[in-house]
Amino acid sequence: MQEQFTSQLALKFTPSWFGLEKAAREAIANEVAAIFEHHTAVSVRGTYVVQGFQGHTDLLFWTFADDAAPLQDLQLELRRSALGAHAETPHAFMGVTKPFEFSEHPTSFAVGMTPRKYLCFYPFIRTPEYYLLPAWERKALIGDHGAIGHEFVPDILTNGVYGFGLGDYEWLLTFETDSLSRLVDCVRKLRTSKSRLYMQDEHPFIVGRYFALRDALLQYV
């Protein structure tokens, strides 16, 4: 598996954004699109409009690169841009792809699968007790969890990356789907997995609709 770093950056527009003239907002959208185009080391998996699903986030940028530095550089330039004066960052996450302990399931973005209409992203932390279980028991728990999720393939694509030491969370999980109804069925059924006994925190859930980058910004113009 090729090691790649991933970033989920959540933005929330401040009231000043909506006080701008439409032309000014369009100009900022163009500037942001140009910034992303300039950072050629960064690949954009998708830009997601979150309005209607969560109040704390308006846009979610999902990007990845072979190194963490280009992802950070891109975000620093966004903060210095005109957009940075009219947006807050309620959440930011960094992860890295690595082989999983008990499976070889590849991330959908790494193998070039087409993004789906909707994204459901959430970070999570397992309890300390989980990591103290013997390997065979952890493998059984993950196997049970995976078997439930497999029922929803190919309707739902999964992308799991490591977050240990890169932020507050241990794991970052992203579902991609064209059907929110199937997403609800999947997440609900996953609640029956015994691995839930070792879940400490899994917030926030961020759901959004896929747009090309500039088109996503123009939803708020």
CATH superfamily of the largest domain: Apc35880, domain 1
Largest sheet entry: 9 strands, antiparallel
What is the CATH architecture annotation of the largest domain?
A: 2-Layer Sandwich
Text of the CATH class of the largest domain:
Alpha Beta
Q: Average pLDDT value? A: 96
Helical residues, percent: 25-40%
**Strand segment count:** 9
Question: What is the radius of gyration computed over CA atoms, rounded to a whole number of angstroms?
Answer: 18 Å
Distance separating the two termini: 40 Å
Q: What is the H/E string?
A: EHHEEHEEHHEEHEEH
Helix count from the secondary structure assignment: 7
Low-pLDDT residue intervals, each spanning 5 or more residues: none
Q: Helix/strand-derived class?
A: alpha+beta
- In total, the number of domains comes to 2
Strand content: 25-35%
CATH topology of the largest domain: Alpha-Beta Plaits
Shape: globular
Task: Describe the 3D structure.
Strand 6 and strand 7 (171-177) form a beta hairpin. Helix content is 32%, strand content 29%. It has seven helices and nine strands, in the order E-H-H-E-E-H-E-E-H-H-E-E-H-E-E-H. The chain folds into two domains: 5-96 and 208-218, Apc35880, domain 1 (Alpha-Beta Plaits, 2-Layer Sandwich), CATH 3.30.70.1030; 118-156 and 164-206, Alpha-Beta Plaits (2-Layer Sandwich). By secondary structure, it is an alpha+beta fold. Strands 1, 2, 3, 4, 5, 6, 7, 8 and 9 form a nine-stranded antiparallel sheet that branches.
